[in-house]
Amino acid sequence: MTTVAIIQARMGSSRLPGKVLMDLAGRSVLAHVVEAANLIAGVDVVVVATSSQIGDDALAAWCDDHDVACFRGSETDVLDRFVGAACAHDASIVIRLTADCPLLDPEIAGQVLALLIAGGVDYASNIDPASWPDGLDCEAMTMAALVSAAADATRSSDREHVTPFIRNSKERYTSLNLICPIPGLGRHRWTLDTADDFTFLANLMDELPGDRAVSMTAVLALLRSRPELGRTKQDARNAGFSAARGQEVVAAQRSFEASHRMLARAEAVIPLGSQTFSKSRLQLPPGEAPLFLTHGDGGRVWDIDGNEYVDMVSGLLPVVLGYRDPEVDWAVRRQLDRGISFSLATKLESDLAERLVRLVPSAEMVRFGKNGTDATSACIRLSRAFTGRDRIALCGYHGWQDWYVGATTRNRGIPQAVSELSHMVAYGDLEAVDRLMSQHRGEFACLIIEPTNIVDPPEGYLEALRQLVHRHGALLVFDEVITGFRWALGGAQAHFGVTPDLSAFGKAMANGLPISAVVGRADVMAEMEQIFFSSTFGGEAISLAGAIATVDKLERENVPEILWRKGAELMAETRAIVTRHGLDDTLDLVGSAPWAVLSYRDHVGGSAAAVKTLFLREMIAAGVLINASHNVSFAHNRADMAQVQSAWEHAAGVLALELARGDLDKRLHNGLIRPVFQVRPSA
Fold first, then answer.
1. Which of 588, 541, 596, 542 is nearest to 568 (CA)?
2. Deepest of 297, 386, 471, 486, by most Cβ within 10 A of its Cβ?
3. What is the rounded CA–CA span in Å between residue 81 and residue 354?
4. Quick check: 386 and 527 in contact, CB under 8 A?
């Protein structure tokens, strides 16, 4: 078994030409990397892989002068170049290094190699996700994985950057990642890509031994003792790859064969093949959409077939910071070291509750659940206990419990006696609420309402509603499962300046971890000691730790304000696209910038259901996973937003053409998307 370390090198950097042969501490940058590569335990051969272009002759000459193996190949198809270099040295394992990392730590790289071998996997790295300083990157893979990727990768960015195809085909390649045990180091930048980087590295390496490879811990010790050598502003990691990805035209033809096979397997043991209606085949174009995902990163996800998407679903809104957020993931790993569920309460419960009391206007006391329905149901039970009344008024979507679903069209299995206690009211209609509560005077425990959804509240509506409900002796409950931490840190109640008696929070408060919260007036919350609201996992520590990290980052980075800005820009762009294609009467975005909902209407050329089905099909074909709304996240970057806009342009263009042909319903041979039930009126 031969392990070959291949150092990717070129002279033609657009930002810093000739950087790999620049002098650092008396030696070329490349010399530092080659020395470190030779010190990696288990490496048999070190090869510099450069292009066959004339501009890289200097690299070949350097290798010849320093007795270093050199392989030359394609300038742009670096994946093919790596296969050539590996074959030339009969490699069974390949380590990928880059020549712009003069502080490469051979000990860390050796751990990556050991992880690959001990784990028996196809690929191992310390970059997926990245938690080490940028400049210590190391990837190890089997020769079989490298060769198969070279055979099947078609995107130019996958071939230029060698390993994305392997990393993102998780159903096909087994993988492991080496996580840095020291938090926050992923923000450090020790790589060489700009003149700024060179100045930083030159100053740093002048203080380090120049005749041998240095360790990460030695660099950290120097930065602690000489903080003036450090940098506070770091550029984005892998900016070149992100830019290349954003400029690619994503292939419209996508295979969903693995998703179809997985659905058949899942439906044999799971009704509907999914745990959530809105994540199931019912909400996606039949036969023409992914049904199972393998992983996410930032604002993107990958499906079981290896297709990549900008994710505008964001897990149905919980993923507010983006997938694999480093601070949240660190908090989760730290708590894993301590335990998950305990036999008594933990300090984490008070730590998180105190944050909510500080941030949420209605929060005088707090209790935790695991999902939004837990929280809304607790609000209903509290309201009934506090008022001694049974009837409830509902406005919006509030979960799957009997008290809510019994008032919808999907009420199979709900006792009639339960349904009769729940009454739906229209949003914005104060007279309807007054009339309803007057008809059953003294019987209503509460009105539970989404404070805003696809329309903003009319001027003074929420305040007048609170006064009206209180006049009838009932409580006002805000369902902030969607709006909480998205409209503002304190939810829509903070945004609109109206404080309810009780509130339910969930979704965005833990970046995807299962947790919700019931908050409210102390006198009402005191009923918690009398009613039964208790669960084994109510104080589960992983979700609490993740929620604390999420709330802290939401506050520190002012994330809600960023969501408003990103969402507003995207709404403006997409509405302009709709107008440009003459679809204003058929397709729209309604609601508010942090959560803009897609609205479809019948057209002479096809029904609203057909419009939705075709539009979502074409968005998916253009590399955007979308369901009912724009669920923007903190992690969505410029490349993501540009791709979403491009997908809208494509989908709107196809939709306009197909509607002009007419009979769209009949021509969608795989069928149409049908709603589970309507929870909010169409705009």
1. 596
2. 486
3. 56
4. yes
Q: Degrees (nearest 5) of the Cα angle 544, 629, 405? A: 70
Contact between residue 562 and residue 508 where contact means Cβ atoms under 8 Å apart: no
**DSSP bridge partners of 597:** 590, 629
Q: Chain centroid to CA 215: how far?
A: 33
Listed by start position, the domains of the chain span 3-245, 252-323+560-667, 341-539
Q: Which residues are catalytic?
A: 397, 479, 507
Q: Are 591 and 629 in contact (CB under 8 A)?
A: yes
Per-residue pLDDT tens over the stretch 351-380: 999 999 999 999 999 999 999 999 999 999
Residues 336, 341, 344, 346: is their CA dihedral positive or negative? positive
Query: Would you give the distance in Å from CA 77 to the centre of its chain?
Result: 30
- Helical spans, DSSP H, in 206-341: 216-225, 239-247, 257-267, 326-336
State how far the Cα of 593 lies from the Cα of 652, in Å rounded to an integer. 20
Confidence grade of residue 560 (pLDDT, cut at 50, 70, 90): very high
Round to whole Å and give the CA distance between 25 and 213: 12
Report H helices in 421-486: 430-439, 461-471
CATH 3.90.1150.10 fits 252-323+560-667, yes or no: yes
How would you label 470-509 residue by residue, b for 16+ Cβ within 10 Å and e otherwise? eebebbbbbbbbbbbbbbbbbbbbbbbebbbbbbbbbbbb
In the structure encoding, which two tokens stand for residue 29, read together? 């940058």
Cis omega (within 30 of 0) for bond into 129: yes
Residues 588 and 412: their CA atoms lie apart, in Å, by 32
Residue 315 one-letter amino acid: G
Give the integer Cα–Cα distance in Å for 354 and 363: 9
With residue 493 as reference, give the H or E element that holds it.
Answer: helix 492-496
Q: 391 pairs with which residues across the strands?
A: 444
CA distance 621 to 217: 46
Give burial (CB, 10 Å; 0-12/13-18/19+) of 140.
Answer: buried
Shortest CA distance to 542 belongs to which of 339, 384, 357, 308?
Answer: 339
Instruction: Report the CATH architecture of 341-539.
Output: 3-Layer(aba) Sandwich (3.40)
Distance CA 405, CA 411 (A): 6
- CA distances 333 to 242, 485, 539, Å, are 27, 23, 17
Q: Are 81 and 58 in contact (CB under 8 A)?
A: no
pLDDT grade for 407, boundaries at 50, 70 and 90: confident
For position 241, what pLDDT does the model report?
60
The reported pLDDT for the residue numbered 254 is 81
Write down the residue that tokens 């894993």 correspond to.
336
* Residues 293/303, Cβ–Cβ less than 8 Å: yes
Higher pLDDT, 487 or 235: 487
- C-alpha–C-alpha distance, residues 583 and 653, integer Å: 10
The count of residues in the chain is 683
Q: Per the structure block, which two tokens stand in for 210?
A: 């120049």
Question: In a 3-state reduction of DSSP, which class is residue 402?
Answer: helix
- Which residues neighbour 233 within 8 Å (Cβ) at sequence distance 6 or greater? none
Q: What is the 3-state secondary structure (H, E, C) of 553-581?
A: HHHHCCHHHHHHHHHHHHHHHHHHHHHHC
Q: How many CB atoms lie within 10 A of CB 244?
A: 18
Distance between CA 40 and CA 117 in Å, rounded? 14
Say how far apart CA 171 and CA 63 lie, in whole Å.
39
